[in-house]
C-alpha cells in the first residue's frame, strides 16, 4: 500500500499539469478568435447650416469615461452593478475614440465651421469640445429578454483663448432592443446614437 502512494501522487500531479496545459491552450485559442466588428455612423439626416461658414477651428478631444467603457468591447449590463460584454463582437474603435469620430463627422456634416479635427492646425484651435461619457451600454430589463440601450454624454464647449466654458449640455437617448441578440442590440445602439448626435450637431451649429 505504501509503495503505491508515491505513484498515485505522481499520476495526480501529471494529470493536473495536463489539465492546466489544456486550460492555457483554450485561453490562448479564445484570445486568438477573431471578433465580429461593428461600427456606428454619424446620422445621415443632419441639416447643413445653409449660411456663411464660421471662420473658427474646433478641436474634438477624446472623451473621458469609466474604465469599463474604455474598451472596444460592447457593454451589456445584466443588472445595475454588473458590467459584461456581448460575446464574440467588438466596436471598430475603443468607445471613447468612436464617440470622438462620431462627433467629428456630425460637426463636419453641418458645414458650419471652417475646420474640425482631433488636433489643431496651428498651436491651438478656437474652441474645444470636451466630453464625458456617462452611459454607452445596453441594460437588460429585469425579468424580460429585452434591453434598453442608453447613451448619455455631458458635453462642454471651451474657448481655448482663456479656457472658459461658453456652453454645456447633456445629451441622452434610450432605444429598446426587443431581444439581447447581438444584431438587435446593435440596431438599438444605432437608433440611440442617431438621436444623440443629431441633437449634438444642431447644438454646436447654433452655439458657434
From TrEMBL:
Signal peptide: 1-23
UniProt keyword annotations, A-Z: Signal
Pfam family of the protein (one): ABC_trans_aux
Ranges where the ABC-type transport auxiliary lipoprotein component domain occurs: 38-199
Name this polypeptide is given: Membrane integrity-associated transporter subunit PqiC
Protein's organism: Marivita cryptomonadis
Amino acid at each position: 500500500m505504501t509503495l503505491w502512494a508515491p505513484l498515485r501522487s505522481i499520476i495526480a500531479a501529471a494529470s493536473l499539469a495536463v489539465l492546466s496545459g489544456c486550460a492555457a491552450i483554450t485561453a490562448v485559442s479564445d484570445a486568438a478568435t477573431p471578433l465580429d466588428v461593428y461600427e456606428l455612423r454619424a446620422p445621415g439626416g443632419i441639416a447643413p447650416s445653409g449660411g456663411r461658414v464660421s471662420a473658427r477651428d474646433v478641436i474634438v478631444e477624446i472623451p473621458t469615461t469609466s474604465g469599463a467603457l474604455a474598451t472596444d468591447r460592447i457593454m451589456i449590463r445584466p443588472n445595475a452593478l454588473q458590467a459584461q460584454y456581448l460575446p464574440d463582437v467588438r466596436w471598430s474603435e475603443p468607445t471613447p475614440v468612436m464617440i470622438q469620430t462620431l462627433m467629428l463627422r456630425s460637426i463636419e456634416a453641418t458645414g458650419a465651421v471652417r475646420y474640425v479635427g482631433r488636433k489643431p492646425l496651428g498651436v491651438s484651435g478656437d474652441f474645444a469640445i470636451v466630453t464625458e461619457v456617462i452611459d454607452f451600454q445596453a441594460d437588460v430589463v429585469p425579468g424580460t429578454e429585452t434591453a434598453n440601450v442608453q447613451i448619455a454624454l455631458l458635453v462642454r464647449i471651451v474657448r481655448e483663448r482663456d479656457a472658459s466654458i461658453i456652453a454645456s449640455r447633456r445629451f441622452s437617448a434610450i432605444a429598446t432592443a426587443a431581444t439581447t441578440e447581438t444584431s438587435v442590440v446593435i440596431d438599438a445602439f444605432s437608433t440611440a446614437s442617431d438621436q444623440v448626435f443629431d441633437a449634438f450637431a444642431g447644438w454646436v451649429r447654433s452655439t458657434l
